[in-house]
Amino acid sequence: MVHFPTVDGVVKATDGLSFDLEKGKTLGIVGESGSGKSVSSSAILGLHRKTNAQVSGEILLDGVDLLQLSDEEMRLRRGKEVSMIFQDPLSAMHPYYTVGNQIGEAYLVHNKVSKKAARARAIEMLDRVGIPQPDRRVDDYPHQFSGGMRQRAMIAMGLINNPDLLIADEPTTALDVTVQAQILDLLQDLQREFNSAVIIITHDLGVVAEMVDDVLVMYAGRAVEYGPCKEILTHPEMPYTWGLLSSVPDVRGDVNAKLIPIPGNPPSLLDPPPGCMFHPRCTHRDKVPGDLCRTELPELLPGVSGSGHLKRCHLANPDEIYATEILPEIAPDMVEEK
Amino acid sequence: MFAYIVRRAVVGVIMLIVMSLVTFLLFFASPIDPARYACGKNCSPQLREQTRKALGYDKPTVVQWTDFLQGVVKGRQYPDDPALVKKNPDLVAQCPAPCFGYSVVNQTTVNAELKRAFPVSLSLALAALIMWLAGGVFFGVVAAVKKGSLFDRGIVAGALIFYAFPAFFIGIFLLKFFAIKWQLVAIPAYTPIADGPLLWLQGLFLPGLTLALLYMAGYVRMTRAFVLESMSEDYVRTARAKGLKSRRVLVKHSMRAALTPLVTLVGLDFAALMGGAIITESVFNYNGLGKLAVDANTTLDLPTIIGLVLLLGAFVIIANIIVDVLYAVIDPRVRVG
Question: What ipTM is given for this predicted complex?
């Protein structure tokens, strides 16, 4: 749980969020901007400043609760056991220092080695992430790199200490589509090689389908659907996930498929709506008897298809509604195949 | 880089030449007749004309200006009029190149005046600069790190108090209490550095502090704002995510970016202080460029005014070139080629 007390009240950026992840597996956290994806991952790294954020709950890494650690103990784990790749590599790298300096710094701080060894390690990592002529490019400044190369360098920085957990915060959002694919490919390769657990934060369901084992859909700071990737993409049970799926264009799909945007905007986290957070934008809220959506927040419970698939929704027959109302609209070809 | 500096220097020289012309034109556009002023009370029209001729103010402005430029390049002698030189050869003053003129009011060449006053102002400005920069950056960074605390508020409020007081008040206050009443320091007087670096420093302490307190306020607030701004930059978050110690994040990643804009301000403020510390100079009886400028203006001493304009102008131009070069050193993105 991450709360930000402000002058206007407490912003409940994430609340009641829970997930787990094994080594070598990938979790995708999906949601709109402001749904709490980045906030919760920053909490794992302990990046929130104590002066303006309250983080509570427990974050277990190899059985150690990160929230119980002292600042110094957490610092020693940061970048070594857990590391993070940021969204916009141009602003995430310091403009005044060379790429090699910044990558080597991450190695130097957690290993008792000489600067020369750190530099050699930085070159090795740059080579590993596919930067051509790494022994020369190591002395370049970030502005001399292309966008894709900068993100590769960020990945090199994130993986230099062989972390147990790598968090990639929208790693491909700022990149060209062709470069996106290369970066995702690289991440997948490296994950296999380093056997890290990876959390990918994204709003791109294409990335999810490509990369992840499990999906966590977030809305207004809460998990609204959580389960194996295949399950969630083929049998989503929460109207918000349907909305996300309906908003994705598919170039190879049926030309009759419609793009249906989710109406409205995400709610204010300062003053969230009562009941289900999503009900003001939900087109299915009237299918639930007793106005329950407006009054009671649904629990995150196993859905129709089994215990591995959790959802936070009052709807009694989501799979039926999806099959009869949503799927024919967004992918008519898939209905016919059945 | 070298070509760039040369280009800037050439532009700077052209600017100085234009500045000298503008100063000439402005001087003669003024309603006060400098010859009448120099001649004094009970001046007959005949005497006034004589004075005008002796001062060289009878020639057209543009001719006077070209004569001046020639003097800078080749040197000249005063008075300029061959007839006068012949009459009183013992009164002739030689002014070798680069000659910025001869001040009749002070009975000496402008070069000699500037040479005397320049080290005074330079020492004062340097002493002030070091104190205000050290204090401003230190308190600014501390205030930013302890943002919102009592310490932070105290620093910001304290800086504002010194900023609000006029220079003469702070100067006289320091002089009265520190030098006279409590006798913590000697009564400041300018001693050239050649007469002993320690005496030189001692004399500079109070006047330097007066100016430093004045300038520090702005630097404290700016440093605080820049550091706070840089702490929310993405690359500072990256540095923290690497697991760097917070001090290293602050010094290497946050402050380096935050202090870059200060370089520009320091260059300009320092150059402006060279001729602008008039009040402090008079409170502490320092005969620097500021005092020279005020005196030259009240006595309509054209050669001294021109000399000061060019010297201070050159200082601003050089300071700007240095700032630009420093920028390229600090920020790799500015480096060309």
Answer: 0.85
